[in-house]
């Protein structure tokens, strides 16, 4: 057996067969784990490393990032034991490890691995090797995810330089086109709309020169150009680009998710164009991306009208990024898919005291920062402009993105936060706050800036929600902790003291700039809930789902205690809502906010293309609609005096349906071996997966 080797080719063929048969959801993981066990049995290091690399990719596609982290460590140890350091295989192992680590939100570790891979590759590869471009693109994604736009831009420019110098014909190279589009997305977020348009247009020219307009990936470049036009206020070309993108998708893919999402974006931009009175020319087959005629909207009235359209546009753009793919997927981020880039913001508008656009608080905050805050820092604190983070996070409906005109009756107005390290805050924090309060305009885009005298008491003094903060003070003010408890088992109880609504407030909103990455890192720490804690909370939630919905609701109905039955439904709804967020993982979807925005957030989550239990919001709303009749209908209630019985049966059916879905999700994550439908009895199986004994139920 010592001479027996793992059959790598057979393993790859078997895995390919599973994916070709579309059986990956049920067969890929058992096959991969069995193969890894066989390679380990044979003590075949090369075989183990091959399987682990495939398993890393599979778990990443499933969002199972915590499962990947031990494999990352094992892959690096195997590669070292095999003496691969300094080789191409070592660089590949580092890249796979870094990408898995990045997906798990471990950005510092991921950056070190990417840097090590880059250093290793630069020693073994010629300077024009396209694999170096792939590495720079990967680093750009990481920087983009941590809101470090300047280094993200620098890495993309390095990638572009390598691709152009290595290409047989850079003017017709699809990978060059993809990098131009990704660079445009970064530049948009830096407020450099003119440059962004140039890069987005150049990507389209490359497809044109290469006669690749019928390529599916041309649609991604068109959508990126449409987004750039929207940013710059050119609604006519934004509509034309989305229409053409949609046509290419239909030809190449038919009516898939990508088509649906792009159609939603097109509808939103067409509505914005109609609202702004912008005429869209019919498609005459011309290369409209070279048309300078209507590109920039200088008129402040047009910019004001655009603001309302942007509200309904954000979510679709986020979804579109998830759906798009690129021909350069291995060498570059997807053409419109540089992860975590912000959706189109309101085009820059001059403050007009008499015009108040329909605009969300987050968009208003970003415009106030770009037009007023950022210039003030550049003028008065030039040595700190590369050190100050800015955005809007914390308490207030606008931080969740759910505010509307009704929200504007209190604590609403142009505002943003600036976050500094403790050292920087000690030096300039008080003066920066003074300048924020006294030097910035008191009116912006028709809105009045709220002063201390006009804010509600809860938003004053120590509870103020805008201006300058040290990073630690800011998070301590929301959570009681200057940084997240981390993954130390001894601090697990501290996570349990942080309810989900508090964690939602600490991780919501939007970061407009974070040159140091320090604020993003601290904020990410609060999203990175240890899996032991998450599973412990899942156990608690299924316990309440079972007790309130499966056990106490029917008992209270039998007793005729409608109030108690109604409260049982309330507890059931809260527990299911929390479970949906926990099973989709906070590091990916965040946390369930407080009761006021619970359903707004749940509806938005359930609209996502890959959300688990995506019918939960609809089912729970149905449950709430029926609850009054079920709990208080009485014996003679309803048509024909049939009483509340039929409605009670409907409520029970919804409860049973949701409990069955919960069980499906537990089994999908391997958290139970049991088929028991009464969820309280599932808790011991779930808690077998908790390593910290203090987190298990008594």
UniProtKB/TrEMBL annotation:
Annotated ranges, domain DUF4037: 495-597
Xref: SMART domains: TPR (SM00028)
Keywords, sorted A to Z: Repeat, TPR repeat
TPR repeats: 91-124
A Pfam family recorded for this sequence: DUF4037
Domain of life: Bacteria
Record flagged with keyword Nucleotide-binding: no
Family matches, as InterPro entries: DUF4037, TPR-like_helical_dom_sf, TPR_rpt
Protein name: DUF4037 domain-containing protein
Organism encoding this protein: Bifidobacterium primatium
């Amino acid at each position: 057996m010592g001479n027996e080797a793992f059959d790598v080719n057979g393993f790859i063929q078997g895995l390919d067969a599973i994916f070709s048969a579309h059986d990956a959801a049920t067969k890929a993981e058992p096959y991969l784990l069995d193969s890894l066990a066989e390679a380990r049995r044979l003590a075949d290091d090369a075989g183990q490393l091959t399987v682990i690399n495939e398993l890393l990719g599979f778990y990443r596609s499933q969002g199972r990032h915590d499962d990947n982290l031990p494999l990352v460590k094992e892959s690096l140890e195997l590669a070292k034991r095999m003496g691969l350091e300094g080789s191409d295989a070592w660089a590949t192992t580092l890249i796979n490890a870094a990408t898995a680590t990045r997906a798990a939100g471990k950005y510092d570790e991921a950056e070190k691995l990417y840097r090590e891979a880059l250093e290793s590759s630069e020693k073994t590869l010629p300077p024009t090797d396209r694999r170096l471009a792939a590495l720079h693109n990967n680093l750009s994604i990481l920087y983009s995810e941590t809101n470090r736009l300047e280094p993200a831009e620098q890495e993309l420019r390095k990638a572009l330089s390598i691709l152009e110098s290595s290409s047989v014909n850079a003017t017709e190279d699809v990978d060059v086109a993809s990098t131009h589009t990704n660079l445009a997305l970064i530049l948009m977020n830096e407020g450099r709309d003119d440059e962004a348009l140039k890069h987005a247009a150049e990507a389209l020219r490359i497809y044109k020169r290469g006669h690749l307009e019928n390529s599916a990936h041309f649609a991604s470049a068109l959508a990126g150009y449409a987004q750039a036009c929207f940013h710059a206020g050119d609604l006519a070309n934004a509509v034309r680009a989305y229409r053409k993108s949609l046509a290419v998708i239909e030809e190449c893919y038919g009516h898939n998710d990508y088509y649906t999402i792009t159609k939603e974006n097109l509808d939103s931009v067409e509505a914005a164009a109609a609202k702004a009175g912008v005429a869209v020319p019919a498609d005459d087959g011309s290369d409209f991306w070279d048309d300078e005629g209507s590109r920039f909207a200088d008129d402040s009235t047009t910019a004001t009208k655009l603001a309302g359209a942007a509200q309904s546009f954000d979510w679709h753009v986020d979804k579109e990024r998830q759906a798009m793919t690129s021909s350069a997927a291995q060498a570059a981020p997807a053409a419109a898919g540089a992860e975590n880039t912000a959706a189109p913001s309101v085009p820059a508008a001059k403050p007009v005291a008499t015009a108040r656009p329909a605009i969300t608080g987050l968009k208003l905050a970003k415009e106030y920062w770009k037009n007023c805050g950022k210039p003030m820092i550049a003028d008065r604190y030039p040595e700190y402009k590369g050190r100050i983070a800015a955005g809007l996070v914390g308490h207030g409906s606008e931080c969740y993105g759910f505010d509307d005109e009704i929200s504007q009756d209190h604590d609403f107005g142009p505002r943003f936060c600036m976050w500094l390290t403790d050292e920087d805050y000690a030096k300039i924090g008080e003066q920066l706050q003074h300048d924020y309060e006294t030097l910035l305009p008191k009116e912006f885009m028709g809105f009045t800036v709220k002063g201390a005298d006009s804010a509600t008491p809860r938003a004053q003094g120590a509870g103020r929600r805008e201006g300058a903060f040290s990073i630690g003070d800011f998070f301590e003010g929301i959570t009681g902790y200057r940084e997240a408890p981390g993954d130390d088992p001894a601090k697990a109880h501290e996570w349990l003291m942080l309810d989900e609504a508090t964690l939602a407030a600490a991780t919501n909103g939007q970061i407009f700039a974070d040159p140091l990455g320090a604020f993003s890192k601290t904020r990410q720490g609060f999203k990175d809930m240890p899996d032991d804690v998450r599973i412990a909370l899942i156990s608690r939630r299924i316990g309440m789902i079972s007790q309130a919905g499966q056990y106490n609701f029917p008992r209270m109905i039998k007793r005729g205690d409608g109030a108690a039955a109604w409260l049982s439904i309330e507890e059931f709804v809260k527990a299911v809502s929390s479970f949906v967020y926990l099973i989709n993982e906070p590091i990916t979807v965040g946390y369930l906010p407080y009761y006021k925005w619970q359903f707004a957030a749940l509806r938005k989550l359930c609209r996502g293309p890959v959300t688990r239990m995506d019918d939960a919001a609809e089912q729970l709303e149905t449950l709430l609609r029926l609850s009054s009749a079920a709990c208080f209908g009485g014996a003679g209630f309803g048509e024909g005096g049939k009483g509340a019985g039929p409605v009670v049966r409907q409520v029970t059916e919804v409860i049973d349906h949701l409990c069955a879905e919960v069980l499906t999700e537990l089994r999908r994550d391997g958290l139970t071996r049991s088929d028991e439908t009464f969820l309280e009895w599932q808790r011991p199986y779930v808690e077998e997966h908790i390593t910290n004994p203090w987190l298990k139920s008594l």
